[in-house]
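User: I'm curious whether this sequence folds into something compact or stays loose and floppy. Could you predict its structure so I can see for myself?
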Amino acid sequence: MTDSPPLMNVTDAELDDLRSRLRNTRWPTAWPTEGWAAGTEPGELRRLVAYWADGYDWRTHEAAVNALPSHFADIDGTPVHYLRFDGESPGALPIVLTHGWPSSVLELAGLARRLATPSQFGGAAEDAFTVIVPSVPGFAFSPQRPVLDGLPTHEIWHRLLHDHLGFERYGAHGGDLGSGITSRLAAATPRRWRASTCWRSPTPPDTTRRASPRRSRCTSMPSPPGPPTRAATCTSSRPGR
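Assistant: Here's the prediction. I'll summarize afterward.
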């Protein structure tokens, strides 16, 4: 169930225009190199454009996006789109998942389903979470915030979770851009969060040795502003209730 109109409602005329422009692409002169040495390999780019023009089934994917459990909230004048997947067990701990850049909530929908209904994926129902996946303002389904000096995103997330949805405590996860939002959310609301996990790769990985996933996530997590606090701890274990 949703409380909003369909997220996507692209007209046939818009799709026809897009396909026409793709089919009429003016291709540049190829560089005297082979493969990907000078950028995208020309043959692969032509294949991809042809697929978008004549192979991609827009309506099927549009219907799948519109079937997601979408909602909208107004947080102090900032419209925020979010997905909500209710946990299958009573009292499931809420957790907010924040996407990165350039990305959207769509990359996290599969993870959200697994966290909300683990019994459907070989897990135990009592391990379920109620999962909230907001669209970062200006990304895909959340419009850009009305003023640039408005509420920071981590504060919008807290007000969405606590004030709008009524969650007293919650967990958080984020990657890439979302890792910064997540760490700041944890630092700003230490009495509300249960645990946070972040992943980010600001530098190329060291391929000469194999680091543990937990160590990689924790050491690459950006530090929140202000003095160190236990709210900035990165954990890969499920918090207690």
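Summary: The longest helix spans residues 42-54. The first strand starts at residue 70 and ends at 75.
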